[in-house]
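Hi there, hope your week has been kind to you so far. For a while now I've been wondering how a particular protein folds. I'm sending you its amino acid sequence along with the backbone structure tokens. Could you read through the record and tell me how the tokens relate to the sequence? Take your time with it, there's no hurry, and the full record follows here.
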Amino acid sequence: MFLLARRSLAAAAAAGGAARSSREACTAPGQCGPRMATKAAAAGAEPGGGTFAALNVLGTPLKCCCTSPLTGYYRDGFCRTGGGDVGVHVVCAEVTEEFLAYTAARGNDLSTPAPQYGFPGLKPGDRWCLCASRWKEAADAGKAPPVVLSGCHVRALDYVDLALLQAHAGRVCRDRRRQRMAAEPPPAPVSQQHVEGWVCDDVRITTTKELTTTGGTVWSAAWRAAAFLAAEQAALLPPGVRVLELGSGCGLLGLLVARNVRAAHVCLTEQPGAALEHLARNVAANAHLPGMAAVTCCACDWEAAAAALGGRGGAAPGPADGAARPAPAEPGSSTCSALSVLDTRWDIILGSDLVYNDAGVRALPRLLAALMPPRRCACGRQLRAAAAAAEQPEPPAFYYAHTKHRFDAMDVELVEQLEALGLAVAEVVEAGAELPPPSPPPLSSLFPDLRCVVWRIWRPSCGCGAGDAGSGS
């Protein structure tokens, strides 16, 4: 495996500075169409500079509005706004036939696809980030579609009273969303991409637009991770390997691993609720395939898991003093908890495009630090008191496929959080692969090219150099 030297993201951010932008209200019907930026000017910057708060109208972290169709000014599923967003697309709405007819009559046709703007055209029931002023205009006319409050950016309150938004929020029903998910067609074979050396065509995955998270879509980073792992299978995924995937979403990456690797255990995790239900449905649809007997589907809320481990003082996986030990996660288990995931020894941890909000930036590093406890170094230096009495296994490494320059500010903070917890980060490529062109420093380019890379995140040794970047897992 070839390791790339990593420039300090924090230093680069300081050198690059944040992109400046201005904000402007949507004042005419023609300005509120499907005209959206295809790349973020500065993914974490609010108009006028500063760090993007990512709050919704309720004052809580902004939730994903929709990923199918992929909405948002930054085309990331969230109703974020920033420089250049003339229309201020901050209202997450579920469009109706009545609203589509109304807005078309006002000169803003949202039903007709506009490929030049990456706009698929909407149909009743689709969720979309609408211009705040356009939604208010429709509300005044009695034609406003229902909204999802958790997905409406706080800037919507510059145009619409919270009471008015709340009056339209009751029309979005969670039970109806689950009914739609149940009525979706059965999973179809995955055929979008080919992974050299791996069987992909019989793995069946279904996506959904009904989730308010990013877990209902197959992201390109999952394919990039699969390609990397297939090329490095001998080193990273030997027979009998125990694999944990964080934030599995639709389950593509973990299911491809189970299909192609003679693993002892592949544990796919998601947030409890509808996202986990959707993941479990995809796992069940592939249960007949070779290798799938090793798969476990498990709930794992990062915040809760990190908080639970906080009580252990950062200790290695294992119960707190006097606490009952949860059953370890095992293949075939349908009652796997977050604590059982944390109390299982894993050989490798996987993930793809996991960080989309401030909460994730904080919780993911804490969870990884807990899953990679300090150990006794190969040189004999004692890194942790509990390691003095017995030899500790090397903690697993986390291989993370990540889209760079989608949210530069979050990338900077993520690396800072990881390093503050004693973890190291390096970009890796397959053995023999050509070096990619260097990326611009975070926040230094107005329109940086998005690039999907693989990061290796691991806990280094004591500093003597023994067992640092060279090992695969």
